Input
Amino acid sequence: MIFFAIALVAITPSALTDAHQGDIACVAVIATLAEKQRTGTAPADAPDVRQSGKRWAGIVGNRVTTQSGQPRELVAVALSEAAKAEFQRPSDLARINSCAVQMTAELASADSIDKPLPKPVTSK
Output
C-alpha cells in the first residue's frame, strides 16, 4: 500500500494594511458625524451623511474583510474601536469633507455597478 502525504497550506489572514486602516478611520469620521447629526451636535456646515454613511460602512467593511481575509467580527471590532476613538476628538471639518468625498465617490461607483444594463435596441 502506498500512502501519499498532502501538505495543506493554510491561508492566513493578512494584517490590515495602511489603506485598510485609512478606510476604517474615514468610516469612523463619517459614523461620528452621523451620530452628532442625529443628536444635533454636528457642525452646521458639515455634509449630511446620515443616510449614506451606513451603506458606505458596509461597503468598506466588506472590502476590508475580503481583501485582508480577517473575520467579519474582527473588522467590525476595528470599526467600532475607531469610531469610539473618533468620537472623543473634536470635529475637523477638513477631515470630514475629505472622508465625505471618498464616501461619495465610492457610493457613486457602487451605484453604477448596481444599475442594470440598458435593454438592447432592436432594429426593424
User: Anything to note?
Assistant: The chain has four helices and no strands. The CA atoms of residues 1 and 30 lie 63 Å apart.
